Amino acid sequence: MAAWMDMALGYLAACLTTGAFVPQVWYCWKTRDTRSISLGMYSLFCTGVLLWLVYGVRVEQWPVVAANAITLALASSILWLKVRERQRDR
Question: Where exactly are the transmembrane stretches of this chain (predicted)?
């Protein structure tokens, strides 16, 4: 497969998997409701995405870097709302 096709495939996958978080972030920010979201899952997920981001930088795979940087920002915003909600409920 041509290098440009590999790059296009990577960016398309990155757009779809990263874009999948947008509706959840929008809902959480709009309603401030994170009760049904697992704190443990989002904590582990954000850690994993951060590691993928570091990996992407180290191997210079820019679709991996771009997707994981954006996904980390989106998922971290949900995690922040979840932690804030949990502190408020105490």
Answer: 6-29, 36-55, 61-81
